[in-house]
Structure formats: C-alpha cells, structure tokens
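As a warm-up, study this chain.
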Amino acid sequence: MKKPLVGIIMGSDSDLPIMQEAAKILEFFEIEFEVTVVSAHRTPERLFKYSKEAEKRGIRVIIAGAGGAAHLPGMVASITPLPVIGVPVKSASLEGMDSLLSIVQMPGGIPVATVAINGAKNAGILAAEILGVKYKEIRQKIKAFKKELRAEVEQKAENLENLEYKEYLKIMAKK
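Now compare it with the structure written out below.
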C-alpha cells in the first residue's frame, strides 16, 4: 500500500456515515488516505500526536469532521502546518449550525477551509484539488470529473427542455 496523502479524522465513530463520503471520493480519484477517530475533547493527547506527526508520515491534507462543539478541525489546524478541511456534522440539537459556526469562526492565523453541514463529499473533492496543485495525474482526474459534471447538467437541461416539466417530474420520481 502506498503512503496516504489525506487523513480523514472524526471526533466519534458516529460521524463515519457522513465522513465515508470523503473516503468514497478519494477512492474515486485513486488517492491514498487513512481514516481514524481523534476526539478533541476525549483524547487530546491523541489529537496532538496525530496533528504533529501527520506531515512526517506523508499526509498532505487533513479532513476533520466533527459535530456539536466541533473543536477538532480548529485544534488540528492550530498544531499542523497542513491544510485542514472542516466538515461540520449535523447534530441532533441544532441541526449542525453549532458545528458549522464552531468550525468557521476561527481566529486570524488559524484557517480551516469549511464545507457545508455534512459536506464530506465536497471535502474530499477539495482535498483532491489541493493535491492536484502538485500531482498532475490528480489534476487531470479533477478536470475529467468536472467535465462529466457539466455533461450531466447539459443532458438534464436538454431532457427537461424536450419534455413538459410535469412529465420530467414523473421521471424523476421513478429514480
């Protein structure tokens, strides 16, 4: 196995159903990654160790998902020089707004790129784009991926324009 370039971490294994979307995208782009649980509040020593050692181990981007107080992405960003992408995980009490605000309200000097609530798929794409700056083969895969997205939208637009909108909705309902 090649060394992972991306670390996917989360505050609890209950975040894995959301964070798996980042893993799926990285698999699609054939980017090596690792996945683990690192709790900012329950395992601070593990958080410090992971954050300090990630660069030495070859990690180039960290995707950190957390719910509730969501301190994990910011704490990691305060320790490592690597780019950190925060994924606010939807919480039961505040629908993920608490997580989102905890991640985006970082003080100057400690940036965390933040995606939408439960936006792990976009976090995986952003990690691939960051890596694509250095790795041409990843950049080419990103270009092909975006070209395919455009083609899908163009096809949907053509289909909708050729049908009465009510018929199109019936087709969508069958999917």
